[in-house]
Amino acid sequence: MLIKLKRAYEAPARADGYRVLVERLWPRGVSKDEAALDRWLKDIAPSPELRNWYGHDPEKWPEFQQRYQRELMANNDQVEVLRALCEQKTVTFIYAAKDEEHNSAVVLKAFLDG
């Protein structure tokens, strides 16, 4: 599997392959044309409760990773859809967070790679 990560605010590139938005909310200020998405998997993103609890606080990062992984384990249908895509082609997970090291796309990639 070749999974890449990219912010929604970066320009799409041919090397991105299949572009999947892995956010529950649409990125602010990004049009559908600018996003150039192939798919939007809202339900693979962290639950609203988890997202609100985390609030992009790096101190909560270790606990966020554990909680999100538990949500992913309970969300087998969406995980299998994404896994099947990733096994067929290069896939880029598109995310909106400013922090490129501490966001749900990083956890999702690690979960699928693991």
What's the layout of helices and strands?
Layout: E1 3-7, E2 18-21, H1 32-35, E3 39-40, H2 48-54, H3 61-74, H4 76-88, E4 91-95, H5 104-113
Parallel strand pairs: 1-4, 2-3, 2-4
**Contiguous helical run count:** 5
Secondary structure class reads alpha/beta
List the quaternary state of the chains. Answer: single chain
Taken as a percent bin, the fraction of beta residues is: 5-15%
Low-confidence stretches: none
Largest sheet: 4 strands, parallel
Instruction: Please indicate the count of domains.
Output: 1
Helix content: 40-55%
Give the tally of β-strands.
4
End-to-end separation: 11 Å
> How many whole angstroms does the radius of gyration measure?
13 Å
Which outline best applies?
globular
N-to-C SSE string, H for helix and E for strand: EEHEHHHEH
Task: Give the mean pLDDT.
Answer: 96
Spatial strand arrangement across the major sheet = 1-4-2-3
In words, what does this structure look like?
This protein has 114 residues and is an alpha/beta fold. The protein has one domain (3-113). It is 42% helix and 14% strand. It has five helices and four strands, in the order ββαβαααβα. It has helices spanning 32-35, 48-54, 61-74, 76-88, 104-113, and strands at residues 3-7, 18-21, 39-40, 91-95. It has a four-stranded parallel beta sheet, covered by helices on one side. The longest helix has 14 residues, at 61-74. It starts with a strand and ends with a helix.
Distinctive features:
114 residues; alpha/beta
Give me a quick take on this structure.
The chain is an alpha/beta fold. It has one domain (3-113).
